[in-house]
Amino acid sequence: MQEEYSIALVDVLSEITGMQVVMMEDTYVYLSDSKIIPAKTVNEAIKKQAEKKIFQENTKKIAEAKKYLQDTDYKVLPDYDGNKEGILEARAEARALIRGLEG
Known about the structure:
- This protein is rod-shaped.
- Strands 1-2-3 form a 3-stranded antiparallel sheet.
- The protein has helices at 2-17, 39-71, 84-102, and strands at residues 21-24, 28-31, 36-38.
- The protein has one domain (2-102).
- It starts with a helix and ends with a helix.
- Helix 2 (39-71) packs antiparallel against helix 3 (84-102).
- It is mostly helical.
- A hairpin with a 3-residue loop joins strand 1 and strand 2 (28-31).
C-alpha cells in the first residue's frame, strides 16, 4: 500500500512540476533538472491541486442538479398525470445538494 501511495504521489508531483521526480525524502523532493524543492512547498501544491479538483467536481455536480431541476420543472405542475412522488423527492435531493455545495 505504501508503495502504491508513493507511485501516485510521484505521478502528482510530476504533473504539478512538469518534471520527472528523481527521489523523495521527508524534507525535499529532487527533480530531473537538478532542482530541489522543499517538501512543505510540494505538500502545499498538492493541497491546492486537490482543492481545485474538488471545486471543479462540485461545480459540475451543481450544474447537473440545476439542469435536472430545470428539466423536471414542468412535471410538478398540478395537471401532470404521472406519479409526482418520485420526482418531488428527487427534486428535493437536488436542491439539498445545491445548498450543501454552495453553502
